[in-house]
Every structure is written in C-alpha cells, then in structure tokens.
Design brief:
The structure holds two protein chains of two kinds.
Chain A (H helix, E strand, L loop, with lengths): L2 H11 L3 H13 L6 H7 L5 H14 L4 H6 L6 H14 L5 H10 L3 H12 L8 H18 L5 H14 L6 H14 L3 H16 L10
Helix pairs in contact in A: 1-2, 2-4, 3-4, 4-6, 6-8, 7-8, 7-9, 8-10, 9-10, 10-12, 11-12
Chain B lengths: L18 H7 L5 H13 L5 H10 L13 H13 L5 H7 L5 H14 L5 H6 L4 H4 L13 H11 L5 H4 L8 H15 L2 H10 L5 H14 L5 H6 L4 H15 L11 H12 L2
Helix pairs in contact in B: 1-2, 2-4, 3-4, 4-6, 5-6, 6-9, 9-11, 11-12, 11-13, 12-13, 13-15, 15-16
The chains are: A mainly alpha, B mainly alpha.
C-alpha cells in the first residue's frame, strides 16, 4: 500500500472529529492527485475544520483537481457544496465559470452564493484565449451586477468583493464604477456601503492586496 | 436564540398573505389565523400605524390559550412589535412583563431590547428581584422563573447603568447563556474589556449552539478586540459574517461616507472577505 493509500485509509477510518482533522491535514499535505476524491468527500462529513483543511489541500493541487470538483458537486448538501465552490473559487480555473455563475445567481444557500460571488471576480482570465475571454468576463460582470441587488446584505457584500476584483479588467471598469456609485448612494446597509468605499479606495490606489491599510 | 437574520434559508418563502389580509386575519374567529397574521406582520416589517395598533390590541388577547394557560397570540404580537420599531408599543410591552405566561414576558423583554426605551427599565429591573437565588428552573418546565437572558440583554442594550450591581451576580449563574447575557450587558454598561474577554472565552465552549449565541453577543456589543477570535471560531461562516458586521457597524461613524475608513473597519472587512 502506498503512503497516500494509507493516508486515505486514515481519513475513512477516523473515529473522532479530531482524528479526522489530523488525518485530512496529513492527506492534504501529501499533495497527491490520488487524494482528490477523498478530500472532496470530506466536505460532506459535517466537520468544518476538516473541510477547511480539505479545501486548502485541493487548492494547493490546483487545476488538476478542477474536473473532479466540478463533477462531484453535492446537489443535496449545501454545506458540502459551499466548500466545493470555495475550492473552485480559490483555484480560479475558468472552467468553473458556468458553475460559479449558476451558484452565485440561483443557489438557495447564501453560503454557496457568497463563495461563488467572490470567485467570479478572481478567475484567471488569461487562461482563456482572447475571443472567449471577453465573453466570459461580460458574463461574470452581469452575474455580479445582478446579485449586487439581492435582498440579502451578505450577498451584496460578496458581490462588491467580486466586482472589486473584476475591476482589474480595464474593459469592465466603467460599469463597475457606476454600480459602486449607485450602491454607495442607495444601499441601506452601512456595512455594504463601507465595503463599496473600501473597493473604490483600493481601486483608485491600485491596491489589491488584502490586509493593506490606507495611506 | 438564533438571530432570525442568520437563517441559512433566506427570503422569498413568503406565504400568500397581503397586509390587508393579515390585518383582517388578526380579527378572525380562527385563532390560528390570528397567530399566523401576527407573526407575518412582524416578519415582513409592516410598519403602518394600523398594524402597530392591531398588534398592541392583540397583546391583551384572551381568546387564544394553550392547555397550560399560555397566550400564543400575545407572544407573537409582542415579538412582532419589537421588529416594527414603533415606541408606541412600549407601554403595552411593559404590561406584558407581568403576564403569567413566561413566553409572553420573554418576547416582551426581547422586543423592549430592540425598541431600546428607557421607560422600560423599572419593569425590567423588577424581573431580577431575588437575584441569582431566585433564578431557578421552574419544575417540569424548560425555562427559569423569569426570562433572565432577555431581561439582562435588554437592560444592557438600553444602557441601564443603574442595573449594574443587579446584573453582575448573574455572571456566575449556572446557565451559560445567562452568564453570556450578563457579560454582554456588563460590557455595554461599563465598556470594561474584562467582560468582552469573558465572552471570547465562551467561544471555546464545546456546545455549538452556545458558540453561535456568543458570537452573536460579541457582534451585538461591537467588541473589536474579538475580531480574530470571531473569524477563527468553529461556527458556520454565516454566523461569523453577521458578528463581524456588528463589529464593523460599531467602527463606522455616522458620517463615514465622507470620511476615510478607519484601520479597524478595514481590518474587519478583510476578515469578512476571507469568510466568503
């Protein structure tokens, strides 16, 4: 039995939540593609720290995990689905665009929608050829603009985060700036307006790094 | 109590009711229609004076009774009135603090917390009579003699500093949620970080439900020093986001739109972004 198989076995045989977390961390650290299905399955175990470790492991593996992440979306468990979307959002592979769009605009679970909204802004557009790229970016934009009018503040907040990232695409600058102005004037939640203000400030400073404070 | 706004299933499950129908139903001979209408008016924040007046009247309902003598319609009317934000409801809600039904008293205290009206303080203080010694489980019922958690939270939110010495002993009450309520109120009334830290410690508790409540408390009091602890707590991201939103709102001065965001606000937003 290979080392990875042993690590997979430790995950499936973990008999306590803590053992599960440790087993998943070890499996994720192995960075072996053979671990992908097991890491995805962890999303359904209702063990948040283990799921977070699995997201990190899959994100680390990157593009190679995308096809299975897309194929193994759990349609019946929104908790598990949110972790899949988080992993896809972090990997930022454009093959996830359709799924992220559908999740952001039509999923019933806010946790799934927020994760997808953030992901829509961060896709690695350069992986698409020029002709596809333009259409894909427009679709992401219209999806995010639509959900920036959602009745749930947390969805609008996530839409702002997505739009801020998308504003790095020069072509999309103007509609995003216009929408931000509108939200700043009309959104009834202080928290959302503050996030718009932060997005505007960072965009005008060319600051896109998280954690950096204002001059 | 889970804050209603953190429900994972949001919005659009509106029942087929209109405001007119709800107001009509509130007078229906069918008590279950009245009960539902009162809930509906609160849920959909129908703030017309007609709705407020009808709900205030429902606080004195005698028709809808449970086998144990409870007043279901009064409970729902009291809960709804807190959400409508009309100070006109305060005297009626104060009356409800003397109701024989525990759940009516609890709903009234929760709504008085939301309405934040100083005039409720003496009646709320009365429910703390006898102190921790009197705050015991009612035999055979799943609650204490009074809705201490709700009463203490209300006193903290209203800023009733005269209640400090009465609330402080409840930090040692055997029920953790009552302890949390006391820590939360003590922080609001004294701004002493010691009480904020008591709540932060509760985030290590093994009960998920208690961690959720505590995280909500930290958000409600805007205890900035807890931002990282909130972000790292083992509860669902939705709860963390709502708590951090509370911290953020605390940091935002009224006229923030024209002034730059402070570093604390930016820190909280960066944490929120990471939880999406």
């Amino acid at each position: 039995m290979t080392n990875t198989q042993q690590l997979i076995r430790a995950v499936t045989e973990a008999d306590s939540p803590t053992k599960m977390v440790t087993a998943v961390q070890k499996l994720a650290a192995a960075k072996d593609t053979a671990a992908i299905p097991t890491l995805i399955a962890v999303f359904g175990y209702n063990n948040p720290p283990a799921a977070v470790a699995a997201v990190a492991g899959l994100t680390e593996l990157g593009e190679v995990a995308v096809p299975q992440l897309l194929a193994q979306i759990d349609d019946y468990n929104y908790g598990a689905r949110a972790y899949s979307i988080r992993a896809l959002a972090a990997i930022a592979d454009p093959r996830a665009l359709d799924l992220l769009l559908a999740a952001a605009t039509t999923d019933f679970a806010p946790s799934v929608r927020r994760a997808a909204a953030k992901g829509l802004g961060n896709i690695c557009w350069h992986q698409l050829d020029i002709s596809e790229r333009h259409t894909a970016q427009k679709r992401a934009l219209s999806g995010l603009l639509a959900i920036s009018q959602d009745s749930d503040w947390s969805i609008r907040y996530a839409a702002v985060v997505g739009l801020q990232a998308l504003a790095k695409v020069p072509d999309l600058h103007d509609p995003i700036r216009a929408r931000f102005e509108e939200m700043l004037a009309t959104d009834n939640e202080k928290a959302v307006r503050a996030r718009v203000l932060l997005a505007q400030t960072e965009a005008s400073n060319g600051v896109y790094l998280v954690g950096q404070s204002l001059p | 109590m889970i804050e209603p706004s953190t429900e994972e299933f949001s919005g659009e499950n509106a029942p087929p009711l209109t405001t007119e129908q709800a107001l009509t139903n509130l007078q229906s001979p069918d008590t279950s229609l009245r009960y539902y209408a009162a809930w509906w008016l609160g849920k959909f924040r129908v703030k017309s004076s007609e709705a407020v007046d009808a709900l205030i009247a429902a606080l004195e309902d005698e028709d809808d009774r449970t086998e144990l003598g409870g007043y279901p319609l009064r409970r729902n009317a009291a809960r709804a009135l807190g959400k409508l934000g009309n100070a006109k409801a305060v005297p009626g809600l104060i009356q409800c603090l003397e109701c024989s039904d525990f759940y009516v008293r609890e709903a009234a205290a929760q709504s008085l917390e939301m309405l934040c009206d100083k005039s409720a303080v003496p009646a709320l203080l009365q429910l703390l009579d006898g102190g921790v010694a009197a705050a015991v489980q009612v035999p055979g019922r799943p609650h204490l003699t009074q809705p201490y958690e709700a009463v203490i939270k209300a006193l903290g939110a209203i800023g009733a500093t005269e209640a400090i010495s009465l609330i402080q002993p409840f930090l040692e009450h055997p029920v953790p949620r009552v302890q949390c309520a006391a820590a939360r109120a003590m922080y609001q009334l004294t701004q002493d970080p010691m009480y904020g830290e008591r709540l932060v410690k509760m985030l290590d508790n093994s009960t998920l439900q208690l961690r959720r409540v505590t995280i909500g408390d930290l958000g409600a009091i805007g205890y900035m020093a807890s931002s990282d602890a909130i972000a790292n707590a083992t509860v669902e991201n939705s709860f963390k986001l709502f708590a951090l939103k509370g911290l953020l709102e605390h940091q935002l001065k009224q006229e923030f739109d024209v002034s730059p965001l402070c570093d604390n606000a930016i820190k909280v937003m960066n944490l929120m972004d990471s939880l999406l």
